[in-house]
């Protein structure tokens, strides 16, 4: 890609997207695929042809639109009219939308709004409900608005402008400083400052240097990274390119779990298109900077989310963590300096470099800058993918964005951070969502799982569920995790069955603290968190099992 060609390519991409009078944005993420969006899109295609308007209406198969509990979703945008979002549609309804909405709407004068017929209004979701209006989208800005399999759609919305700016106007050191100024912290769960990680990796010397995108998301109920890769893969590639320029890397790897076939497919296509367009390869934008990347698939081991285990897996070895130092920034992939960043972290980077670190730092709280993507699930009316500014309270997220409890019963608690997180009782729902505040309550932000629990949920069962998961996922390398996790699980099962004693409760607490202090990696160190937090806030539920 030469600099002189870039503007022409962008203008051509914008012209393509503006050539249609109507765009039908059909959610084609994993959630909506499982709900039957493929049949809906097929019905739409057939109906457009039968009505003779397939040349003026574009079908855009997008990534996740957010309201996963109401899929399949389709947003109708006719030129000059207000957009309309249809939910839970089926092929017959899709045909009616074409016949009774699209066809008559296309004949209206520009600026005249179309009134949805009464028999279709039951499928319409207002776009001004809190689920949409309370969010602030940076990472998800393009998701649901572009076809992730077409690089032109990304370019038409400002794609690769940040890379152009970085390569033509900034030094690597200036890029690092901008990310430091932003206050961006790793979104994979650890919350380590991204700019500091890049600053440590930049001076490291080696025959090669690597950037690795960690897409090994494995928390039960979490699908943030999967949705970003499915919905806006070019943004993650651009973030990886900027990271590579900042630290002096020439090669990169996407590490994505095999259980994400749609994400893998779209990243593969995105890499090929970026390479063909000249955004990957030699002398990008006519500069001396060269970079290319490829994909490695994970086999579903939760522990490979830990960066040293991930690196071992890419190398073809067993995915087990190793003690640090040396850190990957010094000795990583194949013994070379490497920088591992999570999907969401890299997706933030182009926005930060375009608008500035100070802009990003103005969002959120002093300790937790920017926004965070969450998978809001559980006993809530509007479950789905959301992005909110750091510092928004749990209550606002659950009761306003989520629409409150779906069961009509009282919210009892919210579980954050997946198997490494904890349970936060309803009395703390006014807590701001940020790294430090959640940690004070005995939980963590993690990668972004957020599961709402009501009064029917028993906390002993919740703790046992998560511990069963982490005990299964232990790599077995260190005895505190390998043995401690199993012993802790057996004690919980004993309590669950009504055969436990007060001595067992005391042993559960001691064993949990031992695991936290003595385990080698984050899996073992955080596995007892669901147990300790439920014991702290809901000890009476443990005591009830013992009494019975």
In brief:
The protein is built from 23 helices and 14 strands.
Structural features, described:
With 548 residues, this protein is of the alpha/beta class. The protein folds into 4 domains: 20-127, Glutaredoxin (3-Layer(aba) Sandwich); 158-361, Rossmann fold, CATH 3.40.50.11540; 371-454, Roll (Ubiquitin-like (UB roll)); 459-547, de novo design (two linked rop proteins). Helix content is 45%, strand content 14%. It has helices spanning 3-17, 30-34, 37-50, 91-106, 118-121, 130-133, 151-156, 161-169, 172-182, 194-201, 224-231, 233-247, 261-277, 307-314, 343-355, 357-361, 394-401, 435-440, 459-473, 479-496, 502-518, 522-526, 529-547; strands spanning 22-27, 57-62, 74-78, 84-86, 124-125, 210-215, 251-257, 292-298, 338-342, 371-378, 384-389, 411-416, 422-425, 449-454. It has a 5-stranded mixed sheet, with helices on one face. Strands 11-10-14-12-13 form a 5-stranded mixed sheet. A hairpin with a 5-residue loop joins β10 (371-378) and β11. α8 (161-169) packs across α15 (343-355). The longest helix is centred in the C-terminal third of the chain and has 19 residues, at 529-547. The model has no long low-confidence stretch (mean pLDDT 95).
């Amino acid at each position: 890609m030469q600099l002189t060609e870039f503007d022409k390519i962008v203008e051509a991409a914008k012209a393509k997207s503006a050539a249609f009078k109507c765009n039908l944005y059909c959610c084609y993420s994993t959630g909506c695929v499982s709900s039957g969006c493929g049949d809906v899109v097929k019905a739409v295609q057939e109906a457009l042809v039968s009505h003779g308007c397939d040349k003026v209406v574009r079908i855009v198969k997008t990534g996740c639109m957010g309201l996963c509990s109401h899929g399949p979703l389709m947003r109708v945008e006719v030129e000059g009219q207000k957009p309309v979002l249809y939910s839970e549609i089926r092929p017959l309804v899709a045909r009616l939308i074409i016949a009774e909405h699209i066809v008559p709407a296309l004949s209206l004068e520009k600026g005249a709004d179309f009134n949805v017929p009464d028999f279709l209004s039951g499928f319409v979701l207002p776009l001004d409900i809190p689920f949409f209006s309370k969010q602030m989208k940076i990472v998800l800005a393009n998701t649901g608005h572009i076809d992730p399999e077409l690089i032109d759609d990304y370019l038409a919305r400002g794609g690769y402008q940040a890379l152009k700016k970085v390569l033509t106007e900034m030094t690597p050191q200036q890029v690092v400083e901008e990310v430091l100024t932003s206050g961006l912290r790793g979104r994979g769960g650890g919350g380590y400052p991204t700019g500091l990680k890049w600053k440590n990796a930049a001076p490291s010397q080696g025959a090669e240097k690597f950037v690795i995108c960690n897409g090994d998301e494995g928390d039960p109920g979490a699908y943030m990274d999967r949705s970003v890769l499915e919905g806006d893969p070019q943004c993650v590639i651009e973030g990886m390119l900027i990271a590579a320029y900042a630290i002096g890397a020439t090669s990169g790897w996407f590490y994505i779990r095999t259980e994400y076939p749609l994400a893998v497919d779209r990243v593969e296509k995105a890499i090929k298109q970026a390479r063909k367009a000249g955004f990957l390869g030699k002398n990008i934008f006519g500069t001396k900077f060269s970079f290319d990347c490829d994909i490695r698939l994970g086999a579903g081991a939760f522990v490979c989310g830990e960066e040293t285990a991930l690196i071992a897996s890419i190398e073809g070895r067993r995915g087990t963590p190793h003690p640090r130092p040396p850190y990957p920034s010094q000795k990583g992939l194949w013994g070379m300096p490497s920088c591992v960043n999570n999907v969401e972290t890299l997706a933030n980077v182009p926005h930060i470099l375009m608008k500035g670190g100070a802009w990003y730092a103005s969002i959120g709280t002093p300790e937790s800058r920017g926004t965070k993507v969450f998978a809001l699930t559980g006993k809530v009316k509007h479950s789905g993918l959301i992005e909110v500014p750091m510092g928004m309270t749990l209550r606002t997220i659950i009761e306003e964005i989520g629409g409150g409890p779906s069961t009509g019963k009282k919210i009892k608690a919210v579980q954050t951070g997946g198997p490494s997180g904890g349970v936060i009782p309803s009395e703390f729902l006014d807590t701001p969502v940020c790294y430090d505040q959640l940690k004070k309550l005995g939980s963590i932000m993690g990668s972004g799982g957020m599961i709402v629990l009501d009064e029917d949920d028993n906390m002993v069962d919740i703790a046992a569920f998560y511990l069963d998961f982490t005990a299964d996922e232990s790599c077995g390398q260190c005895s505190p995790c390998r043995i401690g996790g199993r012993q802790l699980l057996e004690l919980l099962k004993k309590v669950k069955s009504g055969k436990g004693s007060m001595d067992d409760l005391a042993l559960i607490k001691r064993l949990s603290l031992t695991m936290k202090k003595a385990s080698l990696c984050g899996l073992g160190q955080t596995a007892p968190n669901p147990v300790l937090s439920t014991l702290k806030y809901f000890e009476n539920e443990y005591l009830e099992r013992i009494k019975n």
